[in-house]
Structures are given as structure tokens and as C-alpha cells.
Design brief:
This protein is α+β, with helices and mostly antiparallel strands. The chain has four helices and nine strands; from the N terminus they run αβββαββαββαββ. A hairpin with an 8-residue loop joins strand 1 and strand 2. The termini are far apart.
């Protein structure tokens, strides 16, 4: 029941990757296990999260508009995820991998990208700790939400991976209210 409600809340009319959510026990975050899926991605280096996200989004939007080997238009999905691999120090560049989930009808054999900077990514099943927030997200908000989530995980003694981490956005820039944003921290898998 809870799972069905969760899936319905995500429905913005766009396909989302499927996950199962553990029952919440009053925490300020969710625990989700995402199924193995294919995404289309592009990686950028830089200091600015938002600039990387904008450039990455444009490359991937071009791909779904038909800039691929079969000239196929691919439906927009949600969320747009951004994997952040932080640089070694405060003045170092980070790597940002911006990704669109490939819709169900193309999961089996997604069109090959034409742009050499765009690639198909097969994500194995993974579990993430997820914090949700609203508003027009920006770099500062993402950092604050990530720090809050890390504090909560520390408080609860939860084993997690420090990096990489993810930010996810579900809404078009034209949606003005009830916006949905998330930060994801990966669960530490037993070695």
C-alpha cells in the first residue's frame, strides 16, 4: 500500500525508475532500492554544479529529441539525476554525471547516442537514502540538504558511502509550485 502511494506521488505524467521503499520509522529520510535500469548520461568537470547540470541537460535533451543513431525521439522521464564525484580539495574540480532515465519502451535496446560526449549507462540495483525537498533547487540548497541527510545518517549510525552522491530533480523549469527535488546517498554494501 505504502509503495503504491509513493509511486503515485511521483507521477508527474513522466515515467520514473521503479523502486521499493522500506517502511519508514519516523526518520527524516527514505530508504529506497532501485531496480537495475539503463540511463543516458554525460559527464562534465567543473567547479559549478548548476552550470554542469545546465550543459548536461542540454546534451541529453538533444539526445531524446532525436540526436541519436536511429533518429528516434525518446520520451522525457524523471528524475534528472546528477552524480557528483567531488574533487580532492575545496579548489578542485568535481565530476558531474547528468543522467536521464531511459523509458520502459527503450530499456531493452536504447538508441545509441550520436554525440561522443553522451553515453548509455547500465545502473545495477542500488539502495539509497533519500531526502526530499521542494522549491527551485540551486547549488546551495543541494549542499544544505545533503549535509542534513548526512547528519541524519550519522545520528542513526547508518553505514553509507561518502562519495559519490546524487541530486535529482523531477520538474520542468516551468512548474512553479509543488516542486520535487531529492538528494541521494548510497547505502554501503557489504564487501
Amino acid at each position: 500500500m505504502l509503495k503504491a502511494v509513493g509511486q503515485a506521488l511521483f507521477s508527474t505524467g513522466l515515467q520514473n525508475p521503479k523502486f521499493t521503499a522500506e517502511e519508514k520509522q519516523g526518520q527524516d529520510y527514505e530508504v529506497r532500492t532501485y531496480q537495475a535500469t539503463k540511463w543516458v548520461s554525460t559527464t562534465l568537470s567543473g567547479m559549478q554544479w548548476d552550470a554542469a547540470l545546465n550543459t548536461g541537460f542540454r546534451r541529453l535533451f538533444s539526445y531524446i529529441q532525436g540526436n541519436n543513431q536511429t533518429k528516434v525521439k525518446v520520451e522525457m522521464t524523471a528524475p534528472v539525476s546528477c552524480r557528483v564525484d567531488p574533487g580532492a580539495g575545496p579548489a578542485c574540480e568535481s565530476n558531474f554525471t547528468v543522467s536521464f532515465y531511459i523509458p520502459e519502451e527503450h530499456q531493452e535496446s536504447p538508441p545509441e547516442p550520436s554525440d561522443p560526449e553522451v553515453f548509455l549507462e547500465h545502473r545495477k540495483e542500488f539502495t539509497a537514502y533519500v531526502s526530499t525537498y521542494s522549491g527551485f533547487s540551486n547549488e546551495n540548497m543541494k549542499r544544505q540538504e545533503l549535509l542534513k541527510l548526512l547528519e541524519s545518517l550519522k545520528r542513526d549510525g547508518v553505514e553509507h558511502v561518502d562519495k559519490p552522491f546524487y541530486a535529482a530533480g523531477y520538474d520542468s523549469p516551468f512548474k512553479l509550485t509543488n516542486r520535487r527535488n531529492e538528494v541521494w546517498v548510497l547505502k554501503k554494501e557489504p564487501e
